[in-house]
Automatic annotation (TrEMBL):
Protein name listed in UniProt: Sigma-70 family RNA polymerase sigma factor
Top-level taxon of the source organism: Bacteria
PANTHER family: ECF RNA POLYMERASE SIGMA FACTOR SIGK, RNA POLYMERASE ECF-TYPE SIGMA FACTO
Pfam entry (one): Sigma70_r4
CDD domains membership: Sigma70_r4 (cd06171)
GO molecular function: DNA binding; sigma factor activity
Amino acid sequence: MSPPDADPDAAEQRAKLGLDELMVLVGRGDQDAFVPVYTAVSGPVLGLVRRVLRDPAQSEEVTQDVLVEVWRTAGRFRPEQGSALTWVLTLAHRRAVDRVRSSQARTERERRVALLETAPPFDDVVEQVETGLEQQQVRRCLQSLTELQRESVVLAYYHGLTYREVAEFLSQPLGTVKARMRDGLMRLRDCLYEGEVRP
């Protein structure tokens, strides 16, 4: 960027402008107008982002991202639709919420990976079934279920997950998981005790 206020007359005129007018100038590529805009909005942006993220380091990082976005997208600001500060804070809130969602998604992915890595192999799951049932029959009966039925049953009964946790883990609606698990258990029961699989 050019040094701020290189032209004394322009600097004097700019000093009389409000934030909305300065933002319009920034939208036209006026780098010097960005200096007072940055000064005016950086504090409120950091305050809002900190309230959403709570983490000081992440808050500072997101604040810088927001200010870069303000510089890049200032041309989209429309004074007739609201104040410049409101527009900037809307950008900041959106960025902060995106960061929270991204962090939550990453944590959830890591939890899933950890759960899958610690899940016992299929043969170990089978060995946990009541001793009166033949392992080969249990394996055959579990294989006769649909993939969603089998995963739901294994997660619920061998890993102790609730219906809701199973639904979240498999990214399926709760009602779908409940229905598939009920159908899967009925098929298992029929297969194990009658040697037949329900059509």
